[in-house]
Design brief:
Helices cover about 55% and strands about 0% of the residues. The chain has nine helices and no strands.
Length: about 170
């Protein structure tokens, strides 16, 4: 868990320069606290409305749809970054101890293909092979098919084969 306390900040100018230049993305990022608050309030409102006005249902919506969801997301992210640097395989030399961990693939939405991510940090695609379950990439590809996102970065098959160590 030392990585949490290290205080390193990713260089967005290197890894996300296109997003920094996008005014909409900048505004969304500046309002992170609003999105977190909405992620708590909306489940409570859904519980309240769906139950016909029960305060207990609103509290349950806040608890399960808000707080537990955020807690579990944090635990999965921490596991991906901690377990994913200790257990798994390393098909690519990435200059660190990152691994690909199959067991966390579904709960992490594909981000447990962590060695892939470290080997190709600008790629939006973490699961590089058909058998690497990557729900996040499937979602991005769906948005791409709907023309809601474009210019999705992914390494070519040639680049993958050149960098592969195993």
């Amino acid at each position: 868990m030392g990585w949490v306390l290290a205080g390193e900040i990713t260089n967005a100018g290197v890894f996300a320069k296109d997003m920094i230049k996008d005014p909409l993305m900048t505004q969304i990022n500046k309002r992170q606290h609003v999105w977190v608050l909405l992620g708590l309030v909306i489940p409570a409102l859904i519980g309240f409305v769906a139950s016909g006005g029960s305060a207990m249902a609103a509290i349950e919506g806040l608890l399960w749809g808000g707080l537990v969801r955020i807690f579990m997301g944090q635990q999965i992210m921490n596991a991906t970054n901690s377990v994913g640097h200790m257990y798994g395989n390393r098909p690519f030399e990435s200059g660190d101890r990152s691994t690909n961990n199959f067991w966390l693939a579904i709960p992490s939405m594909g981000q447990s293909w962590h060695n892939n991510h470290h080997a190709f940090p600008v790629s939006a695609v973490a699961g590089l092979y058909w058998w690497q379950i990557d729900l996040g990439t499937w979602f991005i590809r769906g948005l791409e098919a709907l023309k809601l996102v474009w210019d999705v970065k992914a390494p070519s098959a040639q680049r993958i084969s050149v960098k592969k160590t195993v």
